[in-house]
Design brief:
Length: 295
């Protein structure tokens, strides 16, 4: 993220933490907490989720989101939606009110509308900053004769602002949610890791709640969120598993990204192999939010 956006990221995370915490404080579920935290970040234009997301090759916003309950393993996901300002709300409706787990495109929007979610126009999700970012990227790609496709996955200079949250509630249940606009200049219809179970998001009380960000394609190939949760189930600390996940991502598929991991005992880990990552947490003892630089 550029230097002038650091404060905005920290503010956005503090607001998300406050929303999630207020659910937990009154005895609410981890599932409700991650939903509320992610809604705050979807509503905040600074992040690549909801309004203000990166634009695809056609200049449209296309969103993916997943939410998962570690107690029951119920999950809800939406992919390639264009008219939902809060895709995580639709994902939650799928989790709670549908026998299915995943909806895409127009069918997802129809399901969401039928279950009380507000629909908007795609233009309402597009902001001038992103129109300009896409214009600059496409002009640059053209001038180098590059194929007008998503930037390559080893380009760590293009930011990733996917949002995610993990939480543990007073009943000992954990949950995770991830929401994204995906990658800049992506091909229409391209789905990333964020909304796929076990890739960009996973939760199981018996292992861990995990949310990832970064280039989706390498993360998908490793089913990275589940890979990490399995390391925790095998007895490793979330902190170690998070770091190992980033090492594995780099070594095995030359991927880059970041990850947050939380187990049902409240132990957590945060790691990234990108130049920077924004993260924040709150426990009964401590609150912190930071934009961390690598190395
Ligand atoms: N993982 C997201 C995707 O590939 C992008 C990101 O995390 O910024 O769609």
């Amino acid at each position: 993220m550029p230097d002038d956006m650091v404060e905005g990221h920290i503010d956005g995370m503090r607001n998300a933490i406050a929303a999630g915490w207020s659910v937990l404080e009154r005895g609410g579920s981890a599932l409700d907490a991650v939903e509320e935290a992610v809604v705050i970040m979807e509503d905040d234009e600074i992040f690549d989720a909801g309004r203000g997301s990166f634009l695809n090759r056609d200049g449209k916003v296309q969103l993916d989101a997943l939410i998962m309950d570690g107690a029951t393993l119920r999950a809800g996901g939406v992919g390639c939606v264009e008219r939902l300002p809060n895709p995580v709300r639709a994902a939650r409706k799928i989790l709670s009110e549908s026998p299915h787990v995943y909806f895409v495109g127009e069918g997802a929007e129809r399901f969401a509308a039928e279950h009380g979610c507000e629909l908007c126009r795609n233009e309402d999700l597009v902001i001038p900053r992103e129109v300009e970012r896409l214009r600059r990227y496409q002009a640059e790609a053209n001038s180098h004769g590059k194929e007008l496709f998503a930037p390559s996955s080893d380009d760590v200079t293009i930011s990733h602002d996917t949002v995610g949250a993990v939480a543990l509630d007073s009943n000992g249940n954990i949950a995770a949610a991830t929401s994204t606009g995906g990658t800049l200049n992506k091909a229409p219809g391209r789905l990333g890791d964020s909304s796929l179970i076990g890739c960009g998001c996973y939760a199981n009380n018996e292992s861990a709640a995990v949310s990832t960000t970064g280039w989706g394609e390498p993360i998908m190939k490793l089913v990275l969120a589940k890979w990490t949760a399995d390391r925790v189930a095998a007895g490793n600390l979330p902190e170690w598993a998070a770091q190992e996940a980033m090492n594995y991502l780099k070594q095995r598929v030359n991927g880059h990204g970041g990850i947050i991991v939380l187990d049902a005992q409240g132990q957590f880990g945060i790691a990234h192999n990108t130049p920077r990552m924004a993260w924040g947490f709150k426990t009964v003892k401590k609150e912190d939010a930071a934009v961390e630089r690598a190395g």
